[in-house]
């Protein structure tokens, strides 16, 4: 089931529109990076796609079962262990008790945390927490996975590894992923397509396809990063006084 | 380093805002950097040797697992063993000994008459006498039993009410000020009313305990709920929690630290109200508790009984904190990683 956004607009109260005429078409199983500077309404757009907020104009088509969500901070519940955090997601989805444990272990293995299931969030490093958070969002078992700058707060070494990890998991699970980021390199590293959102109001101004060659050829990837950065800066310059 | 070069210079290679003005990094490196790595000079990148942040950095699932596991062990703390901390036991005992010595010293100065200010040994002797008569254990048991039963019933009433008030805005606006007010009102003020309504029965005692404990437990729970990071509710919504599931699986556990301090305060109020009720309402079918013992000491003008009763009431309070609330709270905070750096 694809995600279709048509002339989507959002404004809060009488203020200036946050999103204006957003159009996008995301295929099933696609990995789309949503790139933009601050104030481009990225988080609002994700909330609308997730069904947490309603658009003020336009139409959207999203999977009827909603979307899984991953936040910038892992947002794990500190009173539960890593495993229990995942089990809670399964429980709220209505998975039976016996099945929960096995499924949670499976998901922990998937993010390479099979032996850390009994640790509490404060005992885990930032990267491990984010992996548990990823496993939890996979536990929701939704085709569509929305990620709101999930690696923004991590150190560079961990982030590079998690890029590989996310790509692997995306390939293994066939999810449709919408990945919001401020980081051009991250967008190029992960997305099959990079959508650039303008700021105030947010609107898709340009998009680039990222091919398999970009994944292995750093020169090519660097070139694309340069092009996108230039376009992003042009967009930011528009707001100079 | 390929990664540094790429991430640093690629965006800067396009000084003009137009994408057309972009200069491919390959050309740039060929002319500017004679020592550039072969792939950059030739323009063809052998994938296996490129380790830039822009491309895949690991060579496969196994490699990735190994890298992650290495990083995990570097980034997380080693398990620490828990040992018995003797200072936790010795320091309070030392403080107690010092206080008793000061007391004994003051008494031996003979400033006041001995029957007005008895020494520690006189009080301990009186406790021994009372123990011999069976009065001490009886009074303590009666009070403790009432305090605990009254407290548990208060918890059972206050918890759902508190959750409801914390979650339903109109209810909270309507009753919030009243509950806060009730917490300020000394519950001993209810004793005369309770005696008129229920006579000298256990009902009077329990009523006063409820009026003391319930508002403070409700208030503790509400303030615990107020301090929940909004993110937790968002996660609950995203995970598809129903209203009831949200309350029981997310809100209540998240509010537990605040709720626990409400419970602690609720217990303190129960115990205080109980003592007040026992001191004021004596006789009838009301049994003989520590408060009654205190009142009896006053009637007999026997300061040793009064002091013994006060110390027993204090002792019960300390014991409940040490044996019940202390360990629960410590465990709760440790599991959430909130204990580091505290003086507990």
Automatic annotation (TrEMBL), chain A:
The keyword Nucleotide-binding applies. SMART domains: AAA. It comes from the Bacteria. It holds the Pfam family ABC_tran. GO terms for molecular function: ATP binding. Keywords: ATP-binding, Nucleotide-binding, Transport. Residues 3-224 form the ABC transporter domain. This is NitT/TauT family transport system ATP-binding protein. It comes from Pseudarthrobacter enclensis.
